[in-house]
Amino acid sequence: MAYHKVNADQRAQGHSPYLDNDELQATALDLEWDMEKELEEPGFDHFRLDSAAQHHLGNSQSPDLDLEPIQPSSSPKGRFQRLQEDPDYISHYTRQAPKSNRCSFFRILKVFCTALILFIFGVVIGYYARKKCPSPPTSQEPNNPQIYHEILKEIKAENIQRIYRDLLEFPRGDDDADLAVKIQGQWRSQGLEDVRLVNYSVLLDLPGPASNTVTLQSSGECFYPSGQQCSTDPKTLHSPDLLYSYAAYSAKGTLEAELVDVQYGTMEDLIRVQAITNVTKKIALLKLGQSPLLYKLSLLEGAGFGGVLVYTDPCDLPKTADLADKAFMVSLNSGGDPSTPGYASIDGSYRQNRLNLTTLLVQPISALLARKLVSIPEDTAQRDRCTPLHLPAAGKKTISLTIQSVTTFKTISNVIGYLKGAVFPDRYVIIGSHHSSLQGYGGQGWASSTAVTTALLQALMAEVRRGWRPDRTLLFCSWGGTALGNVGSYEWAEDLRSVLQRNVVAYISLHNPVTGNSTLRPVASPSLQQLAAESQSFNCVEKARCPGYNVSSVQIQGDADYFINHLGVPATQFSYEDIKASENSSFLSEALFPVPATKTEELDPSFSLHETIAKLTGQVTLQIATAPVLPFNALDIALEVQNSLKGDEAGVPQLLAVASRLRDTAELFQSDEMRPANDPQERAPVRVRMLNDVLQGLEKSFLLQQAPPGLYRNILYRLDDRTSQFSVLLEALEHCKLHQSNETVQAALSEVLNSINSAQVYFKAGLDVFETALAGKK
């Protein structure tokens, strides 16, 4: 009977069949009243709290609870006495004793007050903690002018000079592997942790065991390329100055033929020569300059010549240059490993048999030897060094030309250092230098290039140690194989092409920072011209040598080639050079002369010019790497296109109409998208990312499928400062003169038209994306 009374209340909630009469229910109520009385007695207060605390456990069905069966008792009081004595007792009494609501109210009040006190205490602690630990100063924000100033002031001329001399003192072997390891160590010592050495096995064309020679058949006199008489002295035979006076990737062998003066090898020159003589298998005497060497060689090869002697006219050289008796080295490689054209030279790649890149036997010679070949008396040469050289029409000369360079597979090394960006780590700004040279040929430009890059890295890493990081990832690259055709940069870019097409934002070139000391020469793609011009006004140390807003988009030498012509990446370069001696001086930098090791320090003894280049490069790098919106100007591209179409040639009116639409779209893009994005309140992260993606691809539309040898595929770059039109159109017009056909002109016009139209469609699509996004928000 007692068993049923104790459990009556539990089963009442579940409508148990045992409680279906009024008597049992009344008995349960009596028992409840007796329990309340007993619990209110002294000594049972603690039980009441324990029972309430175990309320949840009383309803649990957990198998961990092993409850003892309840035994019958004669009275409820005896049952509770046994329960109190049992130490393992867990109450299954689920109904809370009906007591005064005052206890529950006080418990709730106590919990509320505790929570309130803790909340107030937390607010006070947070307030004082914020005062003691302020947020980082504004100078640590990536896009902050104060940061730029702090970084650039760390770039000092004496540091660049010290790094430069340290590089020159390093003993060099036959290849650049040891030097690459040294540069890697230098960059790591500055704190750049991720610095990689990337090697490729490539086909190189190197000097043979003996120097190339030129022999006059009439007299039997034998000359080395420098003009020196052939000798049997072993020291002379193995002199680097003689061995490295050659054209890399030329055809090999011996050719005996008549010498034909073609001057600069222009279309007019070829028309003139072909009108008076048959040029098949003859040897051309060619001046370097005016247009790319590869382009002129392609014309000579097409005309049927068998060999070419290349020289620089003293009248075209800077007055300060003393190079009349110097031969030089050139490369006939348009870029990369010739055995793997268009793809990387990685293990397992198919190697094509391309030992020669031309059928011509090509040999660079000194102006001194050129004078001997055209029979100018020595005393006349000394009196007037600036007499333009030409072969007399009546004086026919037959010579024998011997080329004996050798091709072999060798390993070249690139050094790639990564400074990871904090906001857009998947967007790369590349700073490119090179450490490749051939036994002093090309001077110490590689050491200047590497020293400036290392000094810039040193200044950046000093700020990184203070907690700063750029928004975008910076890649510091020192390329190998540059002198032989930008081999290292081409192979690395071909290896990572799919990644670089998507991620590279800009390429900043430090190819040869100081080749003269007369004037600063800034070159930039149209979208970066404004940024390059603004950087000059802030960072030019010697104002007299910084003429101001003279930034141009012209073809440049060096490893920027692949990024400009295959990836359509905006690029810029600052360098000091001598004032050009004549309008024919363009492309003389293709010749690599043997230059004394002291030449660079003679040009810039205080290294102030190197400091200027480093700061200009650093300013542009920081702007591109840290600006929330890329500092590219779409309108400048459209203006450059319109300026390149000024002329009376057939088809230009149609091009101007397309160019006008491009300008209208670019103006709309510049005003509707660029200006709001430059307001911090309008910089929604998604909108900024969309805008940057559009800006990053501005120049990709201007890449031609194929361009004539030596000419840029990117039509936004002109041949030189003398020309304002698209180089591909100029070449087509010249080609028309030689072949009396306008098919080449029509094809070139069509390619340019499609490029401009593609750019206009690209700009318009960018505008449509933003309009759709804004409409979606509304």
List the helices and strands and how they pair.
Layout: H1 2-6, H2 8-13, H3 22-40, H4 45-53, H5 55-59, H6 76-85, H7 101-132, H8 145-152, H9 157-169, H10 177-189, E1 194-206, E2 213-216, E3 222-223, H11 234-237, H12 240-243, E4 247-248, E5 253-263, H13 267-276, E6 283-287, H14 293-303, E7 307-311, E8 330-331, E9 361-364, H15 367-373, H16 378-383, E10 398-403, E11 406-419, E12 424-434, H17 445-464, E13 472-479, H18 487-495, H19 497-503, E14 504-509, E15 519-524, H20 529-539, H21 561-565, E16 571-577, H22 599-603, H23 608-626, H24 634-643, H25 652-677, H26 685-696, H27 727-739, H28 743-777
Parallel strand pairs: 4-8, 5-6, 6-7, 7-9, 12-13, 12-14, 14-16
Antiparallel strand pairs: 1-11, 2-3, 2-10, 5-10, 11-13, 15-16
Protein name: N-acetylated alpha-linked acidic dipeptidase like 2
Keywords: Membrane, Transmembrane, Transmembrane helix
Domain Peptidase M28: 414-577
Please, could you describe this protein's structure?
Keywords: Membrane, Transmembrane, Transmembrane helix. This is N-acetylated alpha-linked acidic dipeptidase like 2. By secondary structure, this protein is of the alpha/beta class. Helix content is about 45%, strand content about 15%. It has 28 helices and 16 strands. The strands form three sheets. Strands 1-11-13-12-14-16-15 form a seven-stranded mixed β-sheet, sandwiched between helices. A seven-stranded mixed β-sheet has the order 3-2-10-5-6-7-9. Strands 4-8 form a two-stranded parallel ribbon. α26 (about 685-695) packs antiparallel against α28. The two termini are about 75 Å apart. Mean pLDDT is about 80; it is low at about 1-100 and about 130-140.
